[in-house]
Each structure stands twice: as structure tokens, then as C-alpha cells.
Amino acid sequence: VDKMAERGLRFNDFNVTPLCSSTRACLLTGRNHHSVGMAYLANVDSGYPSHRGRISQSASTIAEVLEQDGYATMAIGKWHVAPLEETTAVGPYDEWPLRRGFGRYYGFLDALTDHFYPDVIEDNHRVDPPAGPEDGYHLSEDLMDHAISYVRDQVSIKPEQPFFLYVAFGTAHCPHQAPQEYLDKYKGAYDGGWDEIRQSRFERQKESGIIPPDAELAPLNPGVKEWDTLSEDQKRLFARFQEAYAGMIDHTDAQLDRLFDYLESIDRLDNTIVVVLSDNGASQEGGPDGGVDIVTYEEDQFCTVDFNLAKIDTIGGPKSQTNIPWGWAQAANTPLKWYKQNTHAGGIRTPMVISWPDGIADAGGIRSQFVHAIDITPTIFDILNIEPPSTYRGIEQMPLHGASIQNLFANPDASPVRTKQYFEMIGHRAIWQDGWKAVARHRRNEPFEDDPWELYHLDADFSEINDVASSEAERLEGLIELWNAEADRYAVFPLDDRYLAVRASGYQTPNSPRGRTEFTYLGGTTRIPGSASPLVFNRPFNITAYTAAVAEPEGVLVAVGDVSGGYSLFVQGGRLVYDYNYLGVKQRITSDDAVPTGASELSFDFERTADNEGVGRLLAGTAVIGEGPMTGMAKSLLSWGVLSVGSDELSPVTDAYRGGFPFSREIERVVFRLGGVGQTGVVGGSRDHENQ
User: Fold this and answer.
1) Backbone phi, then psi, for 35, in 5-degree steps?
2) Cβ-count burial of 239 within 10 angstroms (0-12 exposed, 13-18 middle, 19+ buried)?
3) Contact criterion met (CB below 8 Å) for 361 and 285
4) Which of 177, 196, 190, 201 is nearest to 235 (CA)?
5) Is the separation of the CB atoms in 339 and 327 below 8 Å?
6) Backbone angles phi, psi at 409, to 5 degrees
7) How far is CA 293 from CA 177, 187, 531, 585, 640, in A?
8) What are phi and psi of 302, to 5 degrees?
9) Using an 8 Å Cβ cutoff, are 497 and 444 in contact?
10) What are phi and psi for residue 454, nearest 5 degrees?
């Protein structure tokens, strides 16, 4: 990234939305995220036009326009702008990369994936990762291998055709994972703590001119303790989290270097427009103490220090999925305050570098004008002299909301290309106009009208520290009115502050598989993303595997999840086992006796007796062969992993076995039967269901 910055321009007032899906929607379309249907994340559809979790067909992507104009289009890495329930092997594929303008794709469709055991998609189908962590595999290297391969094919076969390459790493979204050599590289590098690191970064930013000489360092966010007040265990643990974060970023930077070196080796770098950016500020989702699993936050909880310490030696590797604590997240946002999700600067102001030696003469220059993610696509169109179509595939297109910033390339003193921009996420709101910014940090489950608004004069207050709301009351009132007008114009309403899991379990898209209460997966079914697996939360349910009647069965019947959480139904040592992994607590029920010879129906039946607890029973046919109590079960989201029949694919749910532990005989089908949410009672064994 430094190499690109030295060859191009650095922008220190580049703004995005506070979350990934929404920023990607802005970046890919040149339009505001609410207007195109991505108010929040692709994980949920809340039913309202701006909250559909997909990019509207009336907002063509940059790839669709460039493809139509003769460009080869290639996408690599994270997508996360297709409804996750539509990311199974049967689609529909309307919002997958190949249907939104890209000719080739290799990456992952979800918000995140394990970097040692990724759920990889090539074009329109799932593929197995080419290797595992024991072979030195890491997703970022795999992504770059494919990016370089795609470019090599393109310039070899059709060198006259220009190309558009969209690369979206999983870095530095959780889980933070890196090859061991990169973890080792940073051992001890952060023992001094986040206060020391923030201060040194702040001073370096001033020295380099990235921030104004009069900028101030924001105070620590609420919940972030001064490093010197922490216990030795906390310091040791928190430093390890940051080592993994740094190792992952460094490793990713090395992959970018491979790409840029390759472009240079084929004489394509100087006339290639390179844009490097982050999609939101550093994440608060690790909580005050960081986390060694990524399910905790989605369950509206945080990992404790003791919980994390028990797995400290796994941080950064394939046996944990980690995220940094708040203190390091604020250090990543130096000199700003607050985080991803928030509309303060720490959530929306991120780095951006644009390199184009053939078109930018001011190498190494800094630009301080306000720029937003919606301005990038219009800039590319302007440079290429492309007029986006008014209709695309027979659908009338909404106008671009951004504006070209090409004039800033040559003129460091040019005025910003736009005079205003609104922001909103989970009820947090902000409006920028001519160097002033009004911002409201929402408190979940409290009335929106009670949120206090703050006011900052950014031209004189880079870090949003000096709130002048009381002395500029009239200006603030005008900005709030402007926010309301812009929100109405760009379809922001209704405001929604519900938690991800609550939204996901609420409204369901018509014909969504999530609305069913019975699922039948035939043996050999392609792995299914956890986001489209049966919702077995706080309800009675039954899982029955129908297999060939062979003696001495062994292996996994069905598994859902990954190392951070999930469940597996398997036979080991002749006994049927149900292993439930949630927030580090492993609940295992094992049959009292061996599975009877010739048994062809093996089941797990859960009877809910109260909220998030009940009794689990193992059955062979109709005979109960084991049971046990289960408590403290998942409230909503158990895993980001996958559902697989006949083996535990990718990141293993349990440490009870190694590898995929494939089942030793043919599986005809696995059937899930779900009772009503919050309903107590037994769903019933397999044979009872067959009779029904």
C-alpha cells in the first residue's frame, strides 16, 4: 500500500458507510446504500424497499456498465451483497457476481469465512480449498493466486481488451488469522499497549502530513481502559490479539505486492488505475476484552478474559477465530473516536489511496477534500468517458448519487465535488455539509427522537473532539432538518435499531427456505452455508439420518458450523454422539450402548423445556439409546460455518475427531424437523414423523 501511495494520492477525508455490505453497495453502484436496498447487511431482509439486503436491479454495478462497454470484468474475494439465504448451490444467482456484471469470480459470498478453511465459490459453484492449513494454505494467498491467474489469462488471450479487477480480501474483518511466520514476526511488538501505539501513530501521522498539524488525539472511548491499569494477564492476552491482527494485515499487504509486481512485470501498472480502500472503521465487535470466537458478538455477548486465556495459544491460527478488543480498534482508528457501526469518524472515515502514474502527476500527494464511496464509480466513468445507461436489461436506472473526483488529481486546492452527504446505520445518524458535521449516536431500544445530536466544524476539528452544538444551535437545527430531507430523498426510513439476530429471525423473504419447518438433504448434497441452514434455536427439533444398514458404522452423519460454534451428529467407537459447541462450552451426549447392528435410522431429538434449554435424546430407530440435559444453548445465531452431510467439512465443529471424519457407509438422506419457536415439547422420533 505504501508503494501505491508513493506513486499516487492519499485521501484523508475519504468516507464510507459504517458497515461492509452497505459500503460495497455504494462502491459498486455509485449510489447511496439505502436507495439501492442495502440499508444494513445482506444477511437480512426486513421487507422495506431500502432494507432488502440486495442491490436493486435499477442500480447497475460498475461491472455491468464496464462489461457492456467492452471490458473484461473479474471479481476476487468477499462479495456480501447477495441475500445470504440465496447463496446455496441452487441460488437463485441473480445477485451473485456473475449476474451482476462480472465474467469471472473466485471468493466467498458471506460476510466472513475462515481463512484456513474457507467456504470458496468459483463462478457459480462451490469448490474445495486446494489445500489445508497443515499444507501451509491461507485464503489471502489463494485469492491472489486467482487474481494473478485471471489477469494472466486476460492479457495473454485478449491483450487488446481492457480489464476491471475487483479484489476484496477478508482482511481485516474477523476472524484474524495469519500464517505462523507472520504471527511470529509480531511477537512482543505490542507489549507496550494501545496508549503507546496510539500516541506514536498520531505523531507519525502529523509528521507525514496525513492529519493537520493542529489535529487532536481523541480521548479513549467509553469502556477502553488505560493500558497501565490492566492486569498482566489482560496485557498478555490483548497484545496477542493485536499480533494476529497485524500479522494478517502484513500478510495481505504482501499479497497486494505480488499483484502489483505482476502488473509491473507485464508493463500494465502505470496505466492501471489502482484504488485501495477500507470499507468501514475498525470493529467494536470484539468487545472490551477481544474474542477467540466470532459467534459471541452475534449472540449479543462478549468473551471474557478467562474464556480467551484458555485459548490464547490458538490466537491467529486455525483453531480459533478471533477479533481485537476495543482498545486496539480505537488504535486502528487513530486519531478518531468510536468504531465500525457508528457514524462518528471512527466508523466512516477510512484510508484511501489512488495510484495511476500515467494520469496523476502529483505522486505522493495528499488530498483533504471530502470524498465518499459513492464518488469512486462516477470517477472511473469520467476518466473512461463512459455515460452510464439510463436503462439496463430493460430496467430504468436511478441516477448516480456520487460525483467524479478526477479534478482533484491535478488540483490539490479544488473544492469538494459535492457539498453534502448523509449517513445512517442502526439508528446512528450524521450529515456533512460544507465542512460541518452533525452526528447522533443512537442508544438501542430508546426513542430516536431522544438521541442527542453533536456538532463539529471539521475544517478546524479533524478528530471530531470539540462539540459546538450549544454555541451553534441554529446551525445544528438546520443540519438536522437537512438530514431529515436527505433521509427522505434517499429512502432511509424506517429507522431500525434491531440487532442482527432479531432482524434475521423476523421477516422472511417470500419463499425463503428459512420459513420451512422440514428440510431433507440427500446424501452427497453440496455444503450449505450456515446462513441458510435450519433455524434450530429455542425450539424443539429432530435430526434423523437414514443410512444403509451396515455393521459397525463410523463417522459424521451431519455437521453444522465451525470451530466457533455449531453441532455434529456422528458415530464414534460404535456409539452415537451429539456434540454441541456454543461459546466455548461443549455439551456432548453419547449413547449408553453401541449403535445396534443394522440400524438404518439414527436420530437426535431435542425437547425444549424452557428458554434455550431442554433434553437431548439419541435414537436408533424408535429406541432411545442415550439422553442428557442441555442448558445455555444459542439464542439465535450458532455459526458462520457450513452444513455438510456425511462429513464435517472445512473448519471442524468439534475436537472429538480429526479431518472431515466421513461416514463409513452411504447416507440416503438427513431430515430436519422443527417445532415452533418458543414451543416446548418433543418434535418426535423419526418413525413417528414418517407416520405423520
Assistant:
1) -60, -35
2) buried
3) no
4) 190
5) no
6) -60, -40
7) 12, 21, 17, 12, 11
8) -125, 150
9) yes
10) -115, 160
Partners of 597 in the β-ladder: none
Three-state SS for 291?
A: strand
Please name which of 411, 419, 425, 336 lies closest in space to residue 370, comparing C-alpha atoms. 419
| Total residue count of the chain as it appears in this document | 692
Burial of 300 (0-12, 13-18, 19+ CB in 10 A): middle
The conformational region for residue 32 under phi > 0 = left, psi -120 to 50 = alpha, else beta, is beta
Mind listing the pLDDT tens digit for each residue in 458-492? Answer: 999 999 999 999 999 999 999 999 999 999 999 99
State residue 637's pLDDT score. Answer: 66
Question: From residue 345, how far is each of 137, 334, 342 by CA, in Å?
Answer: 36, 10, 8
175 prior amide bond cis, ω within 30: yes
pTM: 0.96
For CA atoms 245, 248, 254, 260, give the dihedral sign: negative
Q: CA distances (Å), 67 to each of 107, 146, 152, 154, 683, in order? A: 20, 20, 18, 14, 51
**Residue pointed to by grid coordinates 492479457:** 155
513 three-state secondary structure: helix
DSSP output for 582-607: ETTEEEEEE-SSPPPTT--EEEEEEE
- Which residues are within 8 A (CB) of 83 and not within 5 positions of it... i.e. 6 or more apart? 42, 45, 52, 53, 54, 95, 509
The answer on pLDDT for 660 being more than 50 is yes
Mean pLDDT for 417-438 is 98
Break the chain down into helix, strand, coil percent, rounded to 5.
Answer: 25, 25, 50
Query: In this structure, what C-alpha cell is assigned to residue 623?
Result: 429406541
For 196-200, 434-438, 676-680, which range has the lowest pLDDT when averaged over its residues?
676-680
Nearest to 217 by CA among 245, 194, 246, 188: 194
- Please identify which residue in the block is written with the cell numbers 472511548: 221
Give the C-alpha separation, 301 to 293, whole Å.
11
Fill in the amino acid letter for 293. Answer: D
Residue 677: pLDDT over 60:
yes
